[in-house]
Write a structure and sequence with these properties.
Elements lengths: L7 E5 L3 H12 L3 E5 L3 H20 L7 H7 L1 E4 L10 E4 L5 H14 L5 E4 L6 H5 L8 E6 L8 E6 L5 H13 L3 E6 L6 H17 L5 H12 L5 H8 L1 H14 L10 H8 L19
Parallel strand pairs: 1-2, 1-4, 2-3, 4-5, 5-6, 7-8
Antiparallel strand pairs: 6-7
Helix pairs in contact: 1-2, 7-9, 7-10, 10-11
The structure holds nicotinamide-adenine-dinucleotide (NAD).
């Protein structure tokens, strides 16, 4: 299959990432089949895509007249059978190996043999996911960043079984979407989370040990290292539970290496429900919730 043979893209899961991924494909002119398990999730996704398109209109990124056309290219569906004629699929269901295996195996059974399957997993082995399908050579990792319509990076991950044709096509497709793809071999945390999460974890250790307050740690990294956001502010935005899960994936994936030991403060905060921005409190307090 060549780039020009891709017309219809299926996105599995219409949450934070799936809705953003559907947005960028539809904006680029692709017909998008957006699949979730319940209509209310799809309604929420279309509502959020509409609002994000309004933001792009205000910024002059797209014309107002484009909005209805972009939305019309997205077909929300609850049944998996509707994805059968897709040329390219991006899976973005929750980060659970059993669920992803089941969804990918079902998609694999329905799709034409030449269709390419990809996963937006942030930490599960692409090699393991590829093995859940009968098209492991046409299986690729496609790690978009949140918020998808705004962030330029896509880590394109090559599983042990990924063939050159599918990999190169995925890289080309990212460029067509206006993204910058970076080729990465499958390894725990890929590059993004392997570098970012230990930084966040170390920042949490600094707070736990009383080296500095969260504000001070973030200021050091913003003003001293030119990071646009401090690591703890970023951790609150990502979700401290997500950060902890990824640290555990790294620790397990690297055979228990102590350098990936999750910070006890992070574990404690997650245990008491201080998950960051989404719960109203993490390293910082949001919306007046104490
Ligand atoms: N949120 C992030 O910042 C981020 C960044 C990069 C990658 N990821 C990865 O993207 C994936 C999705 O994350 P998210 O944050 O969008 O999650 P989310 O919980 O916001 O969305 C997941 C969606 O999948 C739906 N779903 C569940 N089972 C399904 C099924 N069988 N078929 C179709 N849809 C189903 C859910 O109803 C939900 O709407 C995860 O693998 C996550 O690790 C997340």
């Amino acid at each position: 299959m060549q780039l020009d043979d891709i017309h219809t893209v299926a996105v599995l899961g219409s949450g934070t990432m799936g809705s953003g991924i559907a947005h960028v494909f539809a904006r680029c002119g692709y017909a998008v089949i957006l699949r979730d398990i319940d209509k209310r999730f799809l309604d929420r996704a279309l509502d959020s895509i509409g609002k994000n398109l309004d933001r792009e209109i205000k910024k002059g990124k797209i014309a107002e007249a484009d909005k209805p056309n972009i939305l019309a290219r997205i077909e929300p569906v609850t049944g998996m059978a509707a994805i059968a004629h897709a040329d390219f699929v991006v899976e973005a269901v929750p980060e659970r190996l059993d669920l992803k295996r089941e969804v990918l195996a079902e998609a694999d059974r329905l799709l034409r043999p030449e269709a390419i399957l990809t996963s937006n997993t942030s930490s599960i082995s692409i090699t393991t996911l590829a093995a859940a399908t009968k098209r492991p050579d046409r299986f690729v990792g496609m790690h978009f960043m949140n918020p998808v319509p705004v962030m330029p990076l896509v880590e394109v991950i090559r599983a042990k079984q990924t063939g050159d044709a599918a990999f190169d096509l995925t890289m080309q497709l990212c460029r067509k979407l206006g993204k910058t793809p970076v080729a990465v071999n499958d390894s725990p945390g890929f590059v993004s989370n392997r570098v970012l999460m230990p930084l966040i974890n170390e920042a949490a250790y600094c707070v736990m040990e009383g080296v500095a307050t969260a504000e001070s740690v973030d200021t050091v990294m913003k003003l001293g290292m030119n990071h646009p956001m401090g690591p703890l502010e970023l951790a609150d935005f990502i979700g401290l539970d997500v950060c902890l899960d990824i640290m555990e994936v790294l620790q397990k994936g690297f055979g228990g290496d102590a350098k990936y030991r999750p910070c006890p403060l992070l574990q404690e905060m997650v245990a008491v429900g201080r998950l960051g921005k989404k719960s109203g409190r993490g390293f910082y307090v949001y919306d007046g919730v104490k």
